[in-house]
Write a structure and sequence with these properties.
Distance between the termini: 37 Å
Largest sheet: 2 strands, parallel
Strand content: 5-15%
Order of helices and strands: HEHEHEHEH
Oligomer: single chain
Shape: globular
Radius of gyration: 15 Å
Number of strands: 4
Number of helices: 5
Structural class: mainly alpha
Helix content: 40-55%
Length: 138
């Protein structure tokens, strides 16, 4: 995830009850890496071991997804594409985001951003659930 979004997104997702399993950071400097590690340390043992990938290659992402098998992947369309063949729903919140067409400003920060992320995650889970039901009925 984009370094400018990771701390806020991590806080928001954990406040929603999501459990982080793998964090992949692209283009982070030492200061941001330290801040993310500090945030992860603040969780204590609450979430178990969270794997941190710094500037991962695509195969590192795939290996982590296969190993951890998360319920959802939040990142860019790259992670979304890697999760799809594994049957894991993905949600792009950072660039590249070629899977979305945005016709008007949709902030992902602040109160409005929190509502947009919650709405899009809920819609994504609903669509994935309905698609799964359609496949299992045939």
């Amino acid at each position: 995830v984009d370094p400018a979004k990771i701390l806020g997104l991590l806080t928001y997702c954990t406040e929603l009850g999501m459990v982080p399993a793998v964090l992949g950071l692209m283009g982070v400097d030492d200061e941001m890496e330290a801040r993310v590690r500090e945030k992860m340390a603040s969780f204590g043992d609450k979430y178990g071991q969270v794997e941190l990938l710094i500037d991962p290659a695509r195969f590192d992402i795939v290996d982590a997804l296969k190993k951890v098998r998360p319920h959802v992947v939040i990142g860019s369309c790259t992670e979304e594409d890697e999760a799809r063949p594994l049957g894991i729903p993905g949600y792009a919140v950072t660039f590249p985001m070629i899977s979305k067409r945005v016709l008007f400003p949709r902030p992902l920060l602040g109160f409005d951003g929190a509502l947009i992320i919650a709405e899009e995650l809920a819609n994504r889970f609903y669509v994935d659930t309905q698609t799964h039901r359609a496949y299992t009925r045939s």
